[in-house]
Specification:
The chain is about 75% helix and about 0% strand. The chain contains four helices and no strands. The protein is elongated. The protein starts with a helix and ends in an 8-residue tail after the last helix. The mean pLDDT is about 85.
């Protein structure tokens, strides 16, 4: 239980503000060149962040094992979707990946 609270607090303090700042396009100008598609990266961070509450909240609430399993699968899907969006966002037009 302690680890679920710790992970939820850690992700809420790190990924949530960063993702929200990037989605609302509030990134310092010196970082804008490195974070080329800012909003797409923000969406990917929010998808990866969504994995933590989807996994932790049912466990903390004492949900049934079936509900916990479904939420864990949904969290996995969110994490993979976030990783895919981040991967696509990092590919810039004109740069070939070999």
């Amino acid at each position: 239980m302690k680890w679920h609270w710790t992970a939820l607090i850690l992700f809420s303090l790190t990924l949530l503000p960063v993702g929200l700042a990037m989605v609302t396009d509030r990134v310092p100008s010196r970082l804008r060149a490195r974070l080329a598609p800012v909003r797409a990266r923000g969406v990917s961070f929010l998808l990866i962040y969504a994995t933590a509450p989807v996994n932790a909240v049912p466990r903390l609430a004492g949900a049934s094992p079936d509900t916990t399993l479904v939420c864990t699968a949904a969290g996995g899907v969110l994490a993979v979707a976030g990783a895919l969006v981040l991967g696509v966002a990092t590919l810039r037009p004109g740069r070939r990946v070999s």
